[in-house]
Write a structure and sequence with these properties.
Elements: E1 8-17, E2 20-24, E3 30-34, E4 55-63, E5 69-72, H1 74-83, H2 112-141
Parallel strand pairs: 3-5
Antiparallel strand pairs: 1-2, 1-4, 2-3, 4-5
């Protein structure tokens, strides 16, 4: 099997570290997927995306002078969609859906009174936080 940059390979997750995951590849080779190359969304905990023994498809980014392989899962997922049909127009083509961010979803209040109530609650919360901070800083100055 040829290990050239840009090649799409199948592998299994050997171990997971805080900075990335080590992937077992064919022919007994091992490569590293850095945490920034796991998903197109921001990854705070790699364990939410990968587990040991999981089969993954990776793209070989490069090989350094010591023979270490740099891999990417997110680029391997994007490649088939872009290279699937060379006759397809690139601009305006549909892309695979990106994972949703984990921000709380707020439903919009329906009436002015509800909007005002929500605004006042947010405002009071922010003001109390500022007052707590000011209280702490004043006590240090004394």
């Amino acid at each position: 099997m040829e290990f050239t940059p840009g090649a799409i390979l199948e592998g299994t997750v050997r171990s997971i570290a805080a900075f990335g995951a080590f992937i077992n590849l064919p022919e007994g080779k091992t490569g590293l997927v850095h945490i920034s190359e796991v998903s197109s969304a921001y990854v705070t905990d790699i364990h939410q995306h990968l587990t040991e023994g999981q089969a993954v498809k990776v793209k070989l980014l490069n090989t350094d002078d010591r023979g270490r392989l740099s891999l990417s899962i997110k680029q391997a997922e994007e490649c088939p969609a872009a290279a699937g049909n060379s006759n397809a127009p690139r601009r305006g083509a549909e892309r695979p859906a990106r994972p949703m961010s984990f921000q709380p979803v707020r439903s919009e209040p329906e009436s002015f009174e509800e909007k005002l109530k929500q605004f006042m609650a947010d405002s009071n919360s922010k003001i109390s936080g500022v007052r707590q901070y000011e209280h702490k800083t004043r006590s240090r100055k004394r």
